[in-house]
Design a protein that fits this description.
single chain, 183 residues, alpha+beta, four-stranded mixed sheet, two-stranded antiparallel ribbon, 19% helix, 22% strand, elongated
């Protein structure tokens, strides 16, 4: 029996055969992968056993594609909630919890603090409420790691600590996770 096409994403590699990103893993739907093949934007590196058909055409669904043109990664990632959590490894920088994550302005906005990489840290809801609108020295709450502006490479490195629940066998030669996390 054929696997549903929805379960056939393609791993997208840059022209140097490195994933565009690790977390989230750079995946395209089977439709986007096939479209990119027809537009000559990618090379097919590996395929699923699953085929798609039209009246006069049949092809196997790509499982790994590589871009024909190298995309230079941005040196610094955009400041987003997700990237902040990834920088801080999905844990509260005050207590270490991974539950109910929010972000906290180390210098509160009410005291002139800006929403920047160097002033925002990951905090669980409990710690964020406990700290409130106070400076760290007044509530004796200091982030375990001083907030910093990460590079894209640092975020990709952090992303390797969180492998996805599903990895197709054809992807394994192109993905490098921390060895203690591999099945």
């Amino acid at each position: 029996m054929n696997m549903p096409l929805e379960n056939c994403p393609a791993l997208v590699l840059n022209a140097d055969f490195q994933p565009l990103s690790y977390y989230p893993l750079s995946l395209w739907s089977w439709q986007n992968a096939i479209k990119a093949v027809f537009l000559s934007r990618v090379n097919i590196v590996s395929e699923y056993d699953r085929k798609v058909h039209s009246p006069g055409f049949s092809m196997r669904v790509p499982s790994v594609v590589s871009l024909k043109n190298y995309i230079k990664p941005a040196l610094f990632p955009a400041f987003t909630r997700f990237n902040l959590f990834l920088r801080d490894e999905f844990s509260c920088q005050y207590c270490g919890s991974g539950r109910d994550l929010t972000f906290d302005h180390v210098t509160p906005q009410s005291l002139g603090g800006k929403t920047t990489w160097r002033n925002v840290t990951t905090a669980c809801a409990t710690c964020n409420i406990r700290k409130g609108g106070r400076l760290p020295q007044y509530c004796h709450m200091y982030p375990s790691v001083k907030p910093y502006r990460p590079t894209t490479r640092q975020l990709n490195s952090n992303g390797r600590r969180f492998p996805p629940n599903y990895l197709h066998d054809s992807w394994r030669d192109f993905l490098y996770w921390d060895s203690e996390l591999e099945p």
